[in-house]
Amino acid sequence: MELRGKQKRFLRSQAHHLQPIFQIGKNGLNEAVMVQINEALEKRELIKVNLLQNTDEVADEVAHVLEAKINCEIVQIIGRVLVLYKASSKEKYQKISKEVQAI
């Protein structure tokens, strides 16, 4: 599902105060990190991922890989910080996705 402009704006406002909970460093984006990011998205729906200075990864490339592999939406890329969104499949975690659908 592609996010509309208003939905992205809402998600950006929600993500503004979040701290990045994942940091991608010199090991790059590997399978284990992707599994963890997917699990975090399942529980939180909206997370930030930080690319450290010592990584060879490029933010745009990481964003596209994550989008393809774990089927999430890229809300925003600011420098080395990605904001990711994925609606949770579990009812009890669906706080943000219900608000997004209402927009």
Question: Would you kindly provide a written description of the structure presented here, covering whatever features stand out?
Answer:
- With 103 residues, this protein is α+β, with helices and mostly antiparallel strands.
- It has a single domain (5-96), classed as Translation Initiation Factor IF3.
- Helices cover 43% and strands 19% of the residues.
- It is built from four helices and four strands, in the order H-E-H-E-H-E-E-H.
- The protein has helices spanning 5-15, 31-44, 59-70, 96-102; strands at 22-24, 46-51, 73-78, 81-85.
- Strands 1-2-4-3 form a four-stranded mixed β-sheet, sandwiched between helices.
- The longest helix has 14 residues, at 31-44.
Put the structure in a nutshell.
This protein has a single domain, classed as Translation Initiation Factor IF3 (2-Layer Sandwich), CATH 3.30.110.
Give the beta-strand count.
4
The largest pleated sheet is described as: 4 strands, mixed
Considering the protein shown, what is the CATH homologous superfamily? YhbY-like
What is the third-level CATH name, the topology? Answer: Translation Initiation Factor IF3
Shape: globular
Strand order of the largest sheet: 1-2-4-3
Q: What is the mean predicted local confidence, pLDDT? A: 91
Work out the count of structural domains.
Answer: 1
Helix content: 40-55%
Structural class: alpha+beta
Unreliable stretches (pLDDT < 50, length at least 5) are none
Q: Identify the CATH class.
A: Alpha Beta
Return Rg in Å.
13 Å
The CATH architecture classification is 2-Layer Sandwich
Topology order in helix (H) and strand (E) letters = HEHEHEEH
N- to C-terminal separation? 14 Å
Domain CRM: 1-97
GO molecular function: RNA binding
Pfam family, one: CRS1_YhbY
InterPro entries: RNA-binding_CRM, RNA-binding_domain, RNA-binding_YhbY, YhbY-like_sf
